[in-house]
Amino acid sequence: MPSIARSPGARTGALPRSSGIQLHVTSLPGGRLGPEAYKFVDWLEAAGQSWWQTLPLGPPDRHSSPYKSRSAFAAWPGLLHDRRAPVSGAELRDFRERHSAWIGDWERFAGPGAAADQVRFEREWGALRGYARDRGVHLIGDIAIYVAPGSADHALHPELFQAGLVAGAPPDAFSASGQLWGNPLYDWPALRRRRYRWWTERLRRTLELFELARIDHFRGFVAYWAVPAGSRTARAGRWKRGPRTSGRPRPRPGRSTTRGRSPVSRRATAPGGSSSGSAAEAR
Questions:
Q1: 16-65 pLDDT per residue, tens
Q2: Which of 79, 93, 202, 267 has the fewest CB atoms within 10 Å of its CB?
Q3: At what angle do helices 114-134 and 35-46 cross, to 10 degrees?
Q4: Residues with Cβ within 8 Å of residue 237, at least 6 apart in sequence
């Protein structure tokens, strides 16, 4: 089962056996947070389902993939039911104060109106989440381990990322040339010196929006395949140690350990790939 992060309000210990559906908001009729989202919650309740799992909620890339989002923190305004809803100055001040770790970066990156859109999203998402909770339906989020090249996080905080290397997966039985994803790789020593504040804030933000969250490709916290930037395939990559301080030994060069998401699995896939598993069924 994929790694699961829980919000502070979530129950500790093993989850009771329950089930749900993975459906991103964009797959709803209309693709937004509106009446159709509430109808889907009603359907989940009627079907005896306890969970609704979405994909990452951030602004997608030009291919419409939320796994290469322009922000690891901001929600996509394209999901809003009403993008013209008024936002007061008091609401903006309150939001900026509560989200001071990232909202300033996003405003500088996205431009005027970026904070107001996040207030609107918080308002609509909070109402939907409360409606779902009252009907016994809880929300599961999805965290892509890597950020997108050129995203707000990468552009404004280059000190947190390695230069000259990008993410991928080594050659294996499924791909003789490996998988070249192209995401920036974290500079884990740099993050450690900052007490992992960026990751702490990222998880805090996610768990303000969901009861649980799946971490996509979380085996990258143990070891990851680093490919020289500009490579045409992932063959030239090598294993590098993740931030862990104990646990399984480092993979031996030349041996693929991509069977697992962590510690083991059947196949390595690009972040967001279908082999990464689903947390919609909790045990």
A1: 899 999 999 999 999 999 999 999 999 999 999 999 999 999 999 999 99
A2: 93
A3: 30
A4: 168, 170, 178, 225, 226, 227, 228, 231
Instruction: Determine the structural domain holding residue 254 and report its residue range.
Output: 3-276
What are the tens digits of pLDDT across the range 166-177?
Answer: 999 999 999 999
Q: For strand 161-169 and strand 179-186, is the pairing parallel, antiparallel, or unpaired?
A: antiparallel
CATH at 132: 3.20.20.80
Q: Which residue type sits at 185?
A: L
The answer to whether 162 and 241 are in contact (CB under 8 A) is: no
Considering its fold, how many domains does the chain have in total?
1
Token pair recorded at residue 260: 């697992």
pTM (predicted TM-score): 0.82
Identity of the amino acid at 187 = D
Q: What is the DSSP letter of 172?
A: B
Residue 181 DSSP SS3: strand
Give the up-direction half-sphere exposure of residue 267: CA atoms within 13 A in the CB hemisphere: 13
Q: How far is CA 208 from the centre of its chain?
A: 13
Residue 283 forms part of a structural domain: no
Sign of the alpha-carbon dihedral angle for 243, 245, 249, 250: positive
- The one-letter amino acid code at 213 reads A
Residue 21's DSSP bridge partners are 52
Number of C-beta neighbours around residue 13 at 10 A: 5
Handedness of CA 157, 159, 160, 164 (dihedral sign): positive
What's the distance, CA 253 to chain centroid?
A: 29
Residues 173 and 192: their CA atoms lie apart, in Å, by 35
Residue found under tokens 């069977």: 259
Residue 126 lies inside a defined structural domain of this protein: yes
Closest by CA position to 160, among listed 58, 247, 72, 238 = 72
Strands 51-53 and 20-22: parallel
